[in-house]
Amino acid sequence: MRVAIVNTLYPPTTVGGAERSVAVLAEALANSGDDVHVIALDDTDVVSTQRVNGVTVHRLPHENLYWPFAQHRAGPLRRVGWHLKDRGAAPAMRAVRALVTKIEPDVLHTNNLTGFGAGVISMAGDLDLPVVHTLRDFSLLCPRASLFRAGQDCMARCHPCRMLTGPRMKAAQKVQVVIGNSDYMIDRHRRAGLFTQSEARTIYNAVPCTGGAKPNSGTRPAAPFRIGFLGAIKPEKGIEYLLHACRMLPARGWSLTVAGHGDGEYVARLKERYGDMPIEWAGFVGAEQVYDAVDLVVIPSIWPEPMPRVLIEAMARGLPVIVSDAGGAPEVARHYAGAAIYARRDVAMLGKLLKEAVRNRPVRNPPDKDVAERFGTARLVTEYREAYRAAIAQVGHG
Q: What are the φ/ψ torsions at residue 376 (nearest 5 degrees)?
């Protein structure tokens, strides 16, 4: 099967877990014999094509007013102009159409579409091409892709959201099969009126090394118990709640590694405020390096995160996890004996769980067979191929 996968970014250009999840799927499909093409945007002036681990990766110029993933934040007028250009047929669509016409895929698999606009799905309809869409963020409903503002969930969509995402929502109704990386994502979009007529499936993310983690006998009794946080250092990721909860821990016997980057001024304020605690601010480092170094992973998100990839990666390595109940995380964490779930923003409960972990020092164990099967790439390939065939059947190809 020839598959064209569209996602805003693709490794090594990454800002979050979605790009890694797309890469895991693309490489697993390619390793299983499919002809896989990925179409992504980059901060470049020319189209480039390369083979990466068996996948043909096409990187296109974004062609909008600015590259939205730069570290500096654009001014309000430029941001409005960017979103208006991204509202319908974004500037990059000319290159996308030409590329898809050349590739001639059996199915188009769309994911995060920031920068591509709604035109990708409409284009597929013009070409009589089946579309499978995976929900990895909220960009169909919200220009910020988060449904989260001023520290709170957006329970109702504001006027700017409705205006800027209207074309996306209209185009999305033409999707044959919609996939959620959690049940939560399917439900949240359907409550907003999307995909009510599309076939829906939930396919959890996977990690290629599931089942390969080696057991760890645990931290040496005299060594600090090592806590890890991986991800963007932003308020919505719950980093301040974690740091505040760490105030409840003993003065000695533990350490916290914060791996990721964020706004420079924000990170500097956190470093100053919590400079008296045993915290290593590791910056943007490889996730494997952190997983190998820590004894426990904490995912304290306060926004409705679709499915934190860190959770599945930690599970695959047998690491104990403490995770908030925000978004889609709880439905996966409940499959894992090493996970403790608490109500987001409940600093007292998070602090209690951390104190128990420091005192009891839980050890890393190999994941059980159920975890290995549920979150392995073999299952991922099987379920996505079934979804592709279902979309193809609806359009009448093949």
A: -95, 165
DSSP per position, 299-362: E---S--S--HHHHHHHHTT--EEEE--TTHHHHHTT-TTEEEE-TT-HHHHHHHHHHHHHH--
One domain, residues 129 and 36? yes
Indicate the pTM of the whole model: 0.85
91-117 confidence digits (pLDDT tens): 788 889 999 999 999 999 999 888 887
Q: Which residues pair with 229 in a beta bridge?
A: 258
**Other C-beta atoms lying within 10 Å of the C-beta of residue 320:** 24
In tens, the pLDDT along 261-306 reads 888 899 999 999 999 999 999 998 888 899 999 999 999 999 899 9
What CATH number did the domain enclosing 247 receive?
Answer: 3.40.50.2000
- Closest Cα partner for 311 from 219, 216, 230, 200? 230
Is residue 134 one of the residues assigned to a domain?
Answer: yes
Domain count, the chain: 2
CA distance linking residue 259 with residue 341, whole number of Å: 21
Residue with tokens 């959770």: 311
Q: What is the DSSP secondary-structure string of 42-74?
A: ES-SS-EEEEETTEEEEEEE--SSS-TTSSSPP
Same domain assignment for residues 192 and 255: no
Radius of gyration of the chain (CA): 21
Residue 114, domain extent: 2-206+376-395
Reported as type and span, the H/E element at residue 166 is helix 159-172
Residue 43 near residue 9, CB atoms below 8 Å: no
Does some domain include residue 17? yes
